[in-house]
Design goal:
homodimer, about 450 residues, alpha+beta, Aminopeptidase, Alpha-Beta Plaits, 2 domains, 6-stranded mixed β-sheet, 4-stranded antiparallel β-sheet, 18 strands, about 35% helix, globular
Chain lengths: ~450, ~450
C-alpha cells in the first residue's frame, strides 16, 4: 500500500479536504444543510473508491450513509463504522487556522507534517483511511472479504437516531465484525488497540433562585445566590478521595484483577511527559489508581460547561436569577448509562437547598463495552499493526465513549474492533485538531493488512 | 410644587426620555460616544433649568458634568450628586420593552403608572427630580441656597476617574452637604432615609487547568477540571453558618448595639411579601441576623457571574482549560475595600490546589459610610419627606454601595445625605427597570421642601 499512497497522495489530500471543508457540526441545528452535503460527499467517495452501491438514508435526525461491495466466494464480511459529524469548533480564537479550511502544516513542537482542521482526526480523517485502504484492495484485486460501510452524522451528540435505523436494517448490516477507527493509540512509539470504551451520561442542570436578576447590594447576603448554590452542589459531587459522591454510583463498577491491571500497565506511559503536554504541575483523580486506570477502568464526573450571571466585560453587580451547568459522567462497561442518569438526577434534586429550584435535563448517554482479545479480528489487527509499526500493539482501555458501538453490538450481535490511529497530540474536540500524516498513512497500511490477515 | 408638576408634566417626560434614550452603559467601552452625548444633554438640561453656568469636563474616563447657581446672600451651598451612566441591560430577552426606548406603562402587578427603561430610576430618573425641583425654585424665586450639580458617568463601574477630578476641583465643589438620590426607600408605605451604605470589593478570578480544552473522555478522571475546582473554591468561601470564610474578613466589622438594631428594626418589613416578590420559598444568609440586617449591617460575598467550558446548545464533551468568576463583596462601613480585596486575593490564591493556576484581577472597590442623624441636612430631609408622605421617615441602612460618596466625604470633608425615592419593585440593575410616577413626583416635592427647611 506504501507505493499506492505515494502515487495518489495529492488526490487523497484533495478528497479528504473536500470532507473537512464542510462544517458538519451536529450539536448545532443550523448546520443541518451541511450534514446533508457531507453525507452526499461521502456517498460519492464510496462509489469512487469502488463500492458496488452507496446511498444516503434519511433518519429522524441526520442522514446515514451506507455503501457495500460484495466479493464472490467471500467467507467474511467487514462492517466499517465511522461518523462524519464533528464537535463545535469553539473557542474559535484559539485556532491558529480556520477550523474548516484544512491545511497541511508542521507541528509547532516536533516539526512533523499534519493535517489541521476540525475533524482532521475525529472522525473524518480516520474514516478516510478505510475508504483508501478499501480502494487500494479493490483496484489491486486483493479484496477477499465483503465490505460494508456505515457512516453516521450524530456520533458527537450521542447517536440518537442510529439505533432505530440499525434495528430496521439489521439484515443489510449483517457482518462478522464492526471495524472502527475513532480512537487514539496510547503512544506513537508503541501502538495499542482499544479493547474497551467507557459509557457516557450527560445532563444539563439549572438552578434558579429569585425569579429575576437582583441588585447584589440590595439583596446580597439575604437571598440565596444560585451561582454560589450551584458551586456548592457541584463541589459536593466529589469526596476527598476524588470519588464521585453520588449514592450507588459505584455499585456496578467491577474491580479489575491484579492480572488485568498488570496487563493494562504494560502500555507505555510517561507521567512527566503527560504533565508537560498539558502544562500542569499535578494530575488529579480517584485515590488508589494510576492515571491510565483513572481514564481506562474507572468512571468519573466532569463539568463540561458552566454559566450564570453577568459574563461580559466590566464589573456588573448582580445577584443572578439562574445558574447552569453541563455535566458529563464517563462510565465503565458494567455501569448502565440510564441507571446512572437516574441516580444523578435523584441525587442532584435531593441536595438542592430549599432556597432554590432545580431543573435537570437529560442530554445524551450510552453504555461502555469490552472486546475479547482472543477474537480473530483482534488477532488480525494486532498482526497487521505489528507489521506496520515493527512492534506488537498492547491492549488498552479508551477513556472516551462511542455510545453507538455498544448499541450495535447489542442489536446486531457483532463485536466491534477499534483500530484507532489518533494520538494525544491531535487534540481532538479542542482547537487546532490535527492528524499526523505519518499516522494517516500507517493507518491505511494497517487496515489494508488487516483485511489480508483477517 | 404639585401644581408646577401638573403644568409641566409633558415637558418633564420628554426631557427625561431624551436622557433615557441614550444607552450610556459605562461597563462597555463601545458606548463611549453615548457617554459624551449623555453628558452634553445634561449640560443643556442644567442651563434650561436655570443654572448660571454648566460645563462638561474631560477626565481620564467618562466626562463629568458640573453646573451651578449662586444666590446672593445665601448662607448654605447644596452640592447635588448624580450619575448618568447605567448598568448593562442584559439579559435583553427578559425585557418587555426596549431598555433604551422609555415608555410609561401600568405596573403589571398594581396597575400604577411607571416609566420603564434602563436608568428610569438608577440614576437618570432620580437625578432628574433634582433638576426639576431646582427649576421650580429658580422660576418661582424661592431658591435661598447656592446650588451646585456634579453628574458623573462612571458610578456603575466604581467611579475610577472621579476622585482625582474632585481633588483637583475641591474649591469649585465647596458646599455644606452632598445631596444624593440614588437609593431606595424600604417601602412606599413608610418612607426612609439612608443613613449608611455598604462598601464594595469586586474581583474577577480565572482558574486554569490544562493549557487547552481536552476530550472529557480521554482525560476525564485523571486531570483536574478547572470548573470543578472553581466550584470547590467558591463553595469554600462560605461556612455552614453563611459567614464568609476568608480569614480576617470580619476583623473590622463593628457589631451594632441592641439599641441601634432596635432602631433599624423599626423599618417596616414583611418577610412573606419579600419572598413572594422574589418567588422564593426561603431566604438565606448569615446565621443570627434578620434579612434587613443581612443587607444593612452585615457584609457578604456573591458570585455575580461565572463561565467556563462549552455553554452553547447541545452536549459537547469537553474538559475545559479555564473557568472564570466575577465575585463581589459588600462591606460594612468599618471594613476597608482595599484591605478586604487583599485578604480575598491572598486567601483565594492560598486555597488553589496544585493542579491549577489561579489569576485574580481587581475590578473595583469603595468604602461604605455612615451619616449622623443629628445633622441639619438629615433633619430637613426628614421634615420634608414627613410632609409629603404624611409620616415620619425611618433611618435605614442601604445594602448597596456608592463608592464615590465615601471618597468625596473624605476629600471634601462634606457629609452626603441620601434622599432616595426608588422602591424594591423598580428592579434596578435588572430587566424592566422602572420608576413609579408617584415616587418621581413625590421626590420632586420632597426635594423642593428640603431646600425650604434646610
Amino acid at each position: 500500500m506504501k507505493a499506492y499512497i505515494q502515487t495518489h497522495r495529492e488526490r487523497f489530500f484533495s478528497e479528504l479536504f473536500s470532507l473537512l471543508r464542510i462544517p458538519s457540526v451536529s450539536a448545532k441545528p443550523e448546520h443541518r444543510p451541511d450534514m446533508e452535503r457531507c453525507a452526499d460527499r461521502l456517498r460519492g467517495l464510496l462509489l469512487d473508491a469502488g463500492a458496488d452501491e452507496a446511498a444516503v438514508y434519511g433518519t429522524a435526525g441526520n442522514p446515514v450513509v451506507f455503501g457495500s461491495k460484495a466479493v464472490p466466494g467471500a467467507e467474511k464480511t467487514v462492517l466499517v463504522y465511522g461518523h462524519y459529524d464533528v464537535q463545535p469548533p469553539e473557542p474559535l480564537e484559539k485556532w491558529r487556522t480556520d477550523p474548516f479550511e484544512p491545511v497541511i502544516a508542521a507541528d509547532p513542537a516536533t516539526g512533523e507534517s499534519a493535517v489541521y482542521a476540525r475533524g482532521a482526526n475525529d472522525d473524518k480523517g480516520q474514516l478516510f483511511m478505510h475508504l483508501k485502504a478499501f480502494e487500494f484492495l479493490v483496484r489491486t484485486g486483493a479484496l477477499k472479504h465483503n465490505v460494508k460501510f456505515i457512516f453516521e452524522g450524530e456520533e458527537e451528540i450521542g447517536s440518537p437516531s442510529l439505533p432505530a435505523w440499525v434495528a430496521d436494517h439489521a439484515d443489510l448490516l449483517k457482518a462478522d465484525v464492526i471495524l472502527v477507527s475513532d480512537t487514539t493509540m496510547i503512544s506513537d512509539k508503541v501502538p495499542s488497540i482499544n479493547c474497551g470504551m467507557r459509557g457516557l451520561a450527560y445532563l444539563e442542570v439549572t438552578v434558579t433562585g429569585p425569579d429575576k436578576d437582583l441588585h447584589s447590594g440590595h439583596y446580597g447576603g439575604a437571598v440565596a445566590n444560585p451561582v454560589n448554590v450551584l458551586c456548592e452542589m457541584v463541589a459536593s459531587l466529589h469526596d476527598a478521595d476524588g470519588r464521585v459522591a453520588i449514592p450507588g454510583f459505584y455499585d456496578d463498577v467491577v474491580e479489575l484483577s491484579a492480572a488485568d491491571r498488570a496487563l493494562l500497565a504494560r502500555a507505555p506511559f510517561d507521567l512527566e511527559e503527560y504533565k508537560a503536554f498539558l502544562d500542569i504541575r499535578e494530575v488529579r483523580g480517584e485515590k488508589g489508581y494510576t492515571t491510565l486506570e483513572r481514564t481506562g477502568i474507572r468512571p468519573c464526573l466532569d463539568v463540561c460547561g458552566i454559566w450564570g450571571g453577568y459574563t461580559g466585560t466590566g464589573a456588573k453587580t448582580v445577584l443572578p436569577s439562574t445558574a447552569h451547568a453541563k455535566i458529563s459522567m464517563r462510565l465503565v462497561p458494567d455501569q448502565r448509562s440510564a441507571v446512572i442518569t437516574d441516580l444523578f438526577e435523584r441525587h442532584f434534586r435531593s441536595i438542592a437547598p430549599p432556597e432554590v429550584k432545580v431543573e435537570v435535563q437529560r442530554c445524551e448517554g450510552g453504555d461502555g463495552f469490552l472486546i475479547p482479545l482472543s477474537s480473530p479480528a483482534y488477532q488480525a489487527a494486532s498482526k497487521a499493526m505489528a507489521e506496520v509499526y515493527g512492534i506488537e500493539p498492547v491492549p488498552s482501555r479508551g477513556g472516551g465513549s462511542i455510545a453507538i458501538l455498544a448499541e450495535m453490538q447489542r442489536i446486531l450481535g457483532i463485536d466491534p474492533l477499534l483500530m484507532g490511529f489518533g494520538l494525544e497530540r491531535d487534540t481532538i474536540h479542542s482547537p487546532n485538531e490535527s492528524f499526523l500524516l505519518r499516522q494517516l498513512f500507517a493507518g491505511m497500511e494497517s487496515i489494508a493488512l488487516f483485511y489480508q490477515y483477517y
